[in-house]
Amino acid sequence: MLKDDLLSFLNRETKDFEWDNPSTSFTASKLSELFNVKRNTVSHYLNQLVQEDKVIKINTRPVYFLSKFVFEQTFFTVNKSIYDSLQELKESQLETEINPCPDLFDELIGSKDSLYKAIEQIKTSIFYPDGGLPIMINGPTGVGKSYIANLIYRYSIEKGILAEDAPFISFNCAQYANNPELLSSSLFGYVKGAFTGADSMKAGLLDAADGGILFLDEVHRLNEEGQEKLFSFLDQGVFRRMGENEGSHQAKVRFIFATTENLEKSFLSTFLRRIPIRVIIPSLNDRSEKEKKQLAYMFLINESRKFSLPLRISSRALDVIIKHHYSGNIGDFKNTIKYITASSYMKNREKEEISIKLHDLPDSILEDTIRFADQKYRQNNDILIFPTSTLDQLYESSLSRFQQIKKTYDNILDSYDRSQIKQQDMTVFEQQVFSEILALFDKLIFDTSKENTSVMMEITTVNVQEIIRYLENAYNVKFNGNSVYAMAHFLYYKGNTEIHWTDKQEVIITDLTSFVDENCKMEQQLAKQFVHLLESKLDVKLYKMDEIFLTFYLRSMTIERTNNKVKAVILAHGYATASSIANVANRLLHKNVFEAFDMPIDVSVGEIASRVLNYIESNDVSKGLILLVDMGSLKDIYSQFKKEVNGPVAIINNVSTQMALFLGDMLGKNLYIEEMIERLQDASKTEYSIIYPEVNKEKVIVTTCLTGMGTAIQIQKLLEASIPEELDIKVLAHDYNRLKEHGTSEAIFQMYQVLSIVGTADPGLPLVDYISLEDLISGQGEAKLRKIFKPFLNEDCIQVINNNLIRNFSLERVIESITILDTEKILTHVEAFLHQLEVQLNKRLTNDKKLALYVHMSCLVERLIRQAPIETYTNIEEFEQCQKEMIYSIKEAFSVIENIYNVKINIAEIGYIYDYLIAEPTDSSEF
Known about the structure:
The structure is a single chain. By secondary structure, the chain is an alpha/beta fold. The protein is built from 41 helices and 25 strands. The strands form 8 sheets. The protein has a 5-stranded parallel sheet with strand order 5-8-11-4-12. Strands 19-18-20-21 form a 4-stranded parallel sheet, with helices on one face. α2 (28-35) packs across α3 (39-51) and α20 crosses α23 (521-538). It is extended and about 130 Å long.
């Protein structure tokens, strides 16, 4: 296997390694030549060997790989597998000699971060003269209080504070919480006869811990009497056993107390005063993501060692495990990883490695994938953990490139500081910065094998490419071809991590920012816009030093200016109107020509102008700016920003995709803005034609109403409920006045095969059958329906429709469908109106007119209640003059309803009642 062959080769060659002149045989490039395989394949296996702690990797240019076993046999022992330089590898020998054993507290994850203050307090307690100081460790269950107590004991022995055989006594006060006397006897001991069953003297925990440490866990369970006895011992170093009335005993004991409770609420103030060192251990939720990841790595390494198998976990699974809330803190975290590992092992016991993917996680943890689904993408590599892996290896491999970035930043700041002290030429400083940037990009790019690139790298690259294209178009510049790849790698490895600077570095960054402001204006503007666009696209956070670094990188590229062009923006109201037009035009033109601003319908002119002004400030519009707008109101925006522009601005109304394409084509020809507007004006003539289907027209029944669309739509619904869907006969509501005015030339007759018109008034169309609503209600329309449907429906279907009509078109059902009024009451009131009207007119109304008026009057009353009467009527003034008696009669009859519903009828509504009264009676012979 190639991997084993590579290791064998390094085993042979490493003994001849020369520090001052390393051979290229130790590089991936040379090895790929020797073994006749691709460089990326060699790099992949070499990095695996580094992870397995079998090979040392030196991140110089080029990168060197050495056999760790042979190196330690030939030169000296190393404490890790990855080094930034040969110098660091050499210096590690000196470190090993000076500090052969690291500080025990370095074993604690978070020793330099969340636990830094706690460790400083602990060391203060340990090294305090004359027996040290008592320590109270406070924190929730499962944070590692007992582990820290044991670590204090081991550290005290290591530093010679305690003898090697010093005792460490651990006691949980909760065991005797319900028996204070037994708790006291356990701590202080007792004499014979102290209580029933005390047959002989017995030493307590203070005696047992003499010369060492007594760790009292859950010390809040100690009652007040026990606390008082204990603080007496803390003060004087002497105590009495239970049952003793005179004399005392001495013991030299260091105390470590631990509790999960609030100190002030759970202890006597006199007891707390004796404990000057109070250490707070944060919960797992309060630890940083870095520390949680290190804890996860440590637990996974332990599991790999227990099973004596490599363990492979996907980064997405690890991410979800780390983000889960563990009520039992670190202990719960550790047990969960144990369970996941054991479960994954049981599923595939025959495999040579344990594999943990998302689907291997418990449901309680998988639920978190929903909560974290909207978060930014993360690297999606598998992490391979061996029994020989170390925490430093696993975490350093993920941080090494970030550390390289940090080191480059440090070097830039040091160079600037030296240049200011020596007052040297700043061009020298800039060249030093350029060299640092190029060296960093070489490391970031050439040390990344293609196999290890992730989806996030691809996403970053695509977004950087889009942003650079935008900047090139907006600022009329040309970027170097390699800039996309270089910046994508930098952003991928930098991530969101914030670098913490020393006070001196903060001052240097402030001074360096001023230097950039004065000397790199164009590059700084580009960098600021780049950062702004990137943060909005990728949910990343870049900081001041990142912006400075990008500014210098852009300056190192010597960006070229290109010919300035007229810019174009599409502004339109609606959710995505402008964006849709711009997207289509840009795609068909094969370049990003148009910027799009989508505006809410109720947006003010000032808000629109503000967005255009932001665009002007971020783009060079000195050659001209064309605004394509959708409505006349947007033409007024120029007055809001005319003082801010340094070139001509053209605002063109009624934007369309065709207009955008025509203009976009001209923008690529470098025409003057005036010439483009003239050509656009000539081309923007509207051409139209109306085309109707010629064959296979759908069959339709049209519903209509004399007084408007509301009743027509309700009749449509009743008919739709009566005609089975499978018959493919549509029912459409249409305006009565349009039917009467345009007849069969109306568009609906061109689009459909109109079978009949159903409504409250006949629009009088020849060749089109009309069925009145009152005929449907009374049943007199059956014969006409048969005539309409017979050519294309069988008798059974016609009978089904007729039965449905009888059911759906009863007078009560129609009134219930077209109004919100109480059906029974309104029919009673309309009946009274009709009776009164017959009295006023001194004539009887036919049944068909009564049915029509029942429907019409019900709708009329509802309109008046809603205060939405019909206000217009044809020749209303002539009607009012010529039909005074009729108007009076209708008003008198309607007064019955006016009094009941507290409404008032107007002349227009009276006119429509009059129309019903004078309408020609239906010719029932047709039925």
